[in-house]
């Protein structure tokens, strides 16, 4: 049993114990606590509402299938699951096990995702299912990302109900977040279509480890995407995250070409992905391939999961990396996870006026008027207009 399996088993036992008497759950958000009907999962987890055929796979001989959703392209035998633990082969048909089956749904400030150039000061109804197609050793949400769906507490939430709840809670957008939304692609797609009908925006928070076809099929329904770029090194991707860099860079280019609003987060791990040369190369790549106006957030790491011995990122490291990225020509560079730091605010790259003042989730519009700097008239890239 490897560490991932051990964690799954341990987390599963704890969660299953706590599930036995559940009948009513709650969404927690900054608009208060909202009751959600909880039914015992055994009553619905195997119904057609949840057991949904996967959209991207091919059937092979001897009832084997190959998943075509992410670059792992798992080969999955009958009665087995892919790496992410949420897709199962049953007699040669491949199913997602997390359709209509989130483990988290609650309103969050959009700045928490973080999006800094997308409808500031609004709420995003934030949704996740169990599972992930990577295994980052510092994952903040490992209790839900590194387990199987039956090992967490889930509730039944259909796509139309999700759009209705977002509207009832005054959320401007629905955010697919916390774990990796690519692994619940079918559910995300159907919710996004319902949200569009209800004039609610869709934002995806992803590591971008996804095949080209499902990404391109999804983007017409997305209003914004935030990509967690883990490093600018394939070695780091393989050793720390269990992924690969190249497919993520491709995904970034596809998102940008599609004209969907894009922001990038780079979590800085001391000694592992914080070298000035790496940040210089990364910034030059972003400027050349994506353009200088894509915001990048250098975020502070806090010890967690399998990386408890590494210290938090020193703030002066973040400040140094921000300067390097600006010197390389990136125009909107932020410091994240340091509440109150001036690097959270948006400054006009032309005249230096403070456009948006942020202190944690307290956000005040200052020199931004519509999409323009009041002081010098520069048009500021982003999605600012009222929904
Ligand atoms: S989505 Fe899951 S099953 Fe499909 S290739 Fe990726 S890890 Fe494997």
Structure description:
With 387 residues, this protein is α/β, with parallel strands linked by helices. It is 26% helix and 23% strand. It has two domains: 3-96, no CATH class; 104-373, TIM Barrel (Alpha-Beta Barrel). α3 crosses α4 (185-197) and α8 (276-289) packs across α9 (315-327). The longest helix has 17 residues, at 3-19. Iron/sulfur cluster (SF4) binds at residues 67, 69-70, 72-74, 82-84, 87, 133, 183.
Topology:
Layout: H1 3-19, E1 24-29, E2 32-37, E3 52-53, E4 57-59, E5 65-67, E6 75-76, E7 87-90, E8 93-96, E9 104-109, E10 123-128, H2 142-145, H3 159-168, E11 173-176, H4 185-197, E12 201-206, H5 212-218, E13 224-228, H6 234-241, H7 245-257, E14 261-268, H8 276-289, E15 296-300, H9 315-327, E16 333-336, E17 346-347, E18 354-359, E19 362-365, E20 368-369, E21 372-373
Parallel strand pairs: 10-11, 11-12, 12-13, 13-14, 14-15, 15-16
Antiparallel strand pairs: 1-2, 3-8, 4-5, 5-6, 7-8, 9-10, 17-18, 18-19, 20-21
């Amino acid at each position: 049993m490897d560490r991932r399996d051990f964690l799954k088993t341990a987390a599963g036992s704890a969660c299953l114990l706590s599930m036995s008497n559940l009948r009513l759950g709650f969404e927690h958000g900054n608009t208060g606590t909202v009751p959600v009907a909880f039914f015992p999962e055994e009553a619905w987890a195997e119904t057609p509402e949840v057991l949904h055929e996967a959209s991207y796979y091919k059937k092979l001989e001897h009832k084997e299938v190959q998943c075509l959703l992410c670059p792992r392209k798992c080969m999955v035998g009958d009665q087995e699951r892919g790496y992410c633990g949420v897709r199962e082969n049953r007699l040669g048909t491949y199913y997602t096990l997390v359709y209509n089956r989130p483990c988290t749904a609650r309103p969050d400030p959009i700045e928490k995702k973080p999006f800094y150039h997308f409808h500031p000061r609004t709420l995003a109804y934030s949704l996740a299912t169990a599972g992930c197609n990577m295994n980052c050793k510092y994952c903040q949400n490992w209790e839900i990302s590194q387990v199987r769906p039956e090992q967490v507490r889930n509730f039944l939430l259909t796509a139309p109900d999700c759009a209705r709840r977002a509207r009832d809670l005054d959320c401007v957008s629905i955010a697919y977040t916390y774990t990796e939304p690519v692994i619940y692609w079918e559910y995300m797609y159907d919710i996004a279509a319902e949200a569009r009908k209800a004039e609610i925006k869709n934002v995806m928070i992803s590591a971008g480890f996804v095949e080209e076809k499902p990404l391109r099929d999804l983007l017409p329904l997305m209003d914004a995407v935030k990509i967690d770029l883990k490093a600018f090194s394939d070695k780091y991707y393989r050793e720390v995250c269990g992924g690969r860099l190249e497919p993520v860079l491709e995904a970034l280019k596809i998102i940008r070409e599609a004209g969907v609003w894009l922001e990038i987060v780079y979590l800085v791990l001391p000694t592992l992905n914080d070298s000035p040369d790496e940040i210089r190369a990364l910034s030059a790549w972003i400027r050349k391939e994506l353009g200088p106006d894509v915001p990048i957030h250098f975020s502070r790491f806090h010890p967690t999961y399998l990386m408890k011995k590494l210290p938090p990122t020193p703030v002066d490291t973040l400040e140094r990396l921000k300067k390097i990225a600006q010197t390389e020509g990136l125009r909107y560079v932020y410091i994240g996870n340091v509440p109150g730091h001036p690097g959270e605010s948006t400054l006009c790259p032309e005249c230096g006026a403070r456009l948006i003042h942020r202190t944690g989730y307290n956000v005040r519009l200052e020199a931004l008027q519509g999409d323009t700097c009041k002081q010098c008239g520069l048009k500021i890239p982003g999605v600012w207009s009222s929904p």
